[in-house]
UniProtKB/TrEMBL annotation:
Binds 1 Ca(2+) ion per subunit. It catalyses: Release of an N-terminal tripeptide from a polypeptide. The lineage of its organism: Eukaryota, Fungi, Dikarya, Basidiomycota, Agaricomycotina. InterPro entries: Peptidase_S8/S53_dom, Peptidase_S8/S53_dom_sf, S53_propep, Sedolisin_dom, Tripeptidyl-peptidase_I. SUPFAM superfamilies: Protease propeptides/inhibitors (SSF54897), Subtilisin-like (SSF52743). Residues 1-18 form the signal peptide. Its EC number is 3.4.14.10. Its cofactor is Ca(2+). Keywords: Calcium, Hydrolase, Metal-binding, Protease, Serine protease, Signal, Zymogen. This is tripeptidyl-peptidase II. GO terms for cellular component: extracellular region. GO terms for molecular function: metal ion binding; serine-type endopeptidase activity; tripeptidyl-peptidase activity. SMART domains: Pro-kuma_activ.
């Protein structure tokens, strides 16, 4: 959907823009403690920030029901996805909300000419707001924090709103999330086709998949013989968040060994917020190179689209909002005129080639989107998490499958094993599991990790177990209740004091996360992590979509209600051995996590996919 320029809000202000009386203020959002950030100093008052007010949307309480109606295989409306226009219309904030917030801003000294309403009407953008203006407006102080990597990030610790406008506002940015990197210079800106009718048996498991995992191992384990035939109607996107990118020479070396027809082929490239392929030989390009090697090999001849967000100047804490901006327009606040300090800043004048305009609703969402980054639920304010989770649900309503890796390092989710205290803060000695993000959001599909058992062969029955090298992240949200589709799932009893058994549980599904053979900087290496599992499942869902599109059906969209339903029983390899790691301060590195059991579990979800059987199940649905 193309998002047109912004309305000037001043023209829209009605008679309700009357002066407001002073009222009590309420704290709206607070910053969570972050062990890798230390306080440096106050942020200078003259700095300009791109102040954006996220207006309260309508009908979000019904979002779950709407999504279930198109995604539950038992629903009469299964597969009848919404258009982007329908989504924008149903959830747009009320005029009353817009008027109340703009009246507050004008009475606080921001003239109507400085206020702009985003095309989807969900945000008010305030032009040229300085820290000195924003601090009294929000009852906040902005500080600079130093990340352990040396990067500087800015945030306020909390902010408050007059009670009469608080109900009209979901979130305000930039505020409590420190996903804003400060650059150098005077401005803070620089953040920087064969015939598929013939059914074939799953190929035999090649020897050594436990040690050296290859595309042939994936095809064997997950019964992949299908060859795409609806390429023109299908699409598949990998989100690559800077600084990760890829080297064509690495792709070619990999393809020469594992997928010769792809030698010389590149992903389709979509630049979001100035994203460029800025890899140079001899520098670390991160994990997206090998993710492309595998996804391109698995879905060929279907092209893979790389949604490249940002460039090498982007640092830690990049948020998921930048690519959400580009694919659904829901976070758009600018018509390309960003010239400000935060979020990160686009275009980025400090990086050659990084000068593209801020992408906003300009990229049609691919039918499947895989993202291998993960964060933590506790670090996001409840309002921020709720709004972002609702955006994922809207993509599902439009028929897009959104997959994220569950994350690594067990139920704590961090190398250092930080878990949560009773008061919700992180602590090395704490004993409550630390749920990940966006795994904790019920409206995405979270992918956990497995590995091939030592010396396994296909005659061994289930050859996978819980990934045990770093251990897959899994658990239960402390904020989002268990969604309907998950109610019948099993919740490993016995450790209930360590997690909220009534919460949304993840992962939903899993795939191998161990010893992917890949080419990096010209040499073969073994890579592990749920970062490899999410794009594997995404490739398989892309092939399912191809089969449905070829049969004249709609893509599968949000898959969770389907994969948990009785209709899909038997279409997964049920993983029943292995345990994920718990909290360091509690039972040491390895003890006390979630165990893989028969049926769903919080280590491997419903299990690993069997493509041949999944296609049969999904073709049986309308
Ligand atoms: C949370 O509890 C721990 C002790 O369990 C304490 O050290 C810490 O200061 C508390 N944090 C807050 C924000 O209350
Ligand atoms: C954790 O416990 C140990 C010993 O019980 C103590 O020395 C240490 O200070 C505690 N750490 C934190 C962060 O509370
Ligand atoms: C796997 O095979 C190797 C080499 O034959 C052997 O040394 C090892 O003990 C085997 N591992 C298991 C778990 O069977
Ligand atoms: C693989 O999928 C095919 C359908 O394409 C099915 O007939 C076969 O039984 C499946 N193999 C296994 C081992 O599940």
């Amino acid at each position: 959907m193309h998002i047109s320029a912004h309305f000037i809000l001043g023209f829209l202000l009605g008679a309700s823009a009357a002066a407001t009386s002073p009222t009590a203020r309420v704290v709206h959002e607070k910053r969570a403690a972050h062990p890798s950030l230390t306080h440096a100093r106050r942020l200078d008052a003259h700095i300009t920030v791109p102040l954006k007010i996220g207006l309260k949307q309508q009908n979000t309480a019904a979002l779950a029901d709407h999504l279930t109606a198109v995604a539950d295989p038992h629903s009469p409306a299964y597969g009848q996805h919404w258009s982007p226009e329908q989504v924008a219309e149903v959830f747009a904030p009320a005029d009353e909300t817009r008027d109340a917030v703009s009246a507050w801003l004008t009475s606080s000294g921001f003239s109507a000419e400085r206020l702009r309403l985003s095309a989807n009407r969900a945000w008010i953008h305030v032009d040229g707001a300085t820290v000195g203006e924003v601090e009294p407006l929000l009852g906040a102080e902005y500080h600079v924090y130093t990340h352990e990597s040396g990067e500087e990030h800015a945030a306020c610790d909390s902010y408050s709103l007059p009670a009469h406008v608080a109900d009209h506002i979901e979130i305000i940015t930039p505020t409590v999330q420190p996903n804003i990197k400060l650059g150098s210079g005077s401005s803070l800106a620089a953040r920087g086709a064969p015939n598929p009718r013939q059914k074939r048996a799953a190929p035999a498991l090649p020897a050594g998949c436990d040690q050296a995992f290859t595309p042939a191992c994936i095809r064997s384990l997950y019964n992949i013989t299908y060859v795409p035939k609806a390429i023109d109607r299908n699409s598949f996107g990998i989100v690559s968040q800077a600084p990760a990118t890829y080297l064509q020479s690495d792709l070619d070396t990999f393809f020469a060994n594992f997928s010769p027809s792809l030698v010389g082929k590149s992903p389709l490239f979509v630049s979001i917020d100035g994203g460029i392929v800025d890899a140079v030989e001899g520098t670390d390009v991160g994990e997206d190179g090998w993710i492309l090697q595998y996804t391109m090999a698995l879905v060929q001849p279907q092209p893979v689209t790389m949604l490249q967000v940002g460039d090498l100047a982007t640092g830690n804490f990049i948020s998921f909002n930048e690519w959400l901006d580009a694919v659904d327009g829901a976070y758009c606040t600018s018509d390309g005129g960003d010239d400000l300090a935060f979020d990160p800043q686009f275009p980025d004048p400090t990086v050659p080639g990084g000068g593209q305009a801020h992408s906003c609703g300009s990229t049609p969402p691919p039918r499947v989107i895989s993202n291998s980054r993960a964060d933590f639920e506790y670090r996001l304010s409840p309002f921020y998490a709720a709004r972002q989770c609702a955006e994922f649900a809207k993509l599902g309503l439009m028929g897009v499958t959104v997959l994220f890796s569950a994350g690594n390092f067990g139920a704590a989710g961090t190398t250092r094993g930080y878990c949560l205290d009773d008061n919700g803060s992180v602590n090395l000695n704490a004993t409550h599991f630390n749920p990940g993000w966006p795994g904790a959001c019920p409206w995405i599909t979270s992918v956990g990790g497995t590995q091939v058992k030592a010396n396994a062969s296909t005659s061994d029955g289930v050859v996978e177990e819980v990934w045990n090298q770093d251990l897959t992240h899994g658990g239960f949200s402390n904020r989002f209740p268990m969604p309907h589709y998950q109610k019948a799932a099993q919740t490993n009893p016995g450790q209930l004091k360590h997690f909220n058994a009534k919460g949304r549980a993840y992962p939903d599904i899993s795939a191998n996360a161990n010893n992917f053979v890949a080419v990096e900087q010209g040499v073969f290496s073994a890579n592990s992590g749920t970062s490899g599992a999410a794009p594997t499942v995404a490739s398989i869902i892309t092939l399912v979509n191809d089969a449905r599109l070829a049969a004249g059906k709609t893509p599968v969209g949000f898959i969770n209600p389907a994969i948990y339903s009785p209709h899909f029983v038997g279409a997964f390899n049920d993983i029943v051995s292995g345990t994920s790691q718990g909290c360091k301060g509690w039972q040491g590195d390895r003890g006390g996590g979630f165990q893989a059991v028969s049926g769903w579990d919080a280590a491997t979800g419903v299990g690993t996919p069997n493509l041949g059987l999944l296609i049969e199940k999904w073709l049986a649905l309308p």
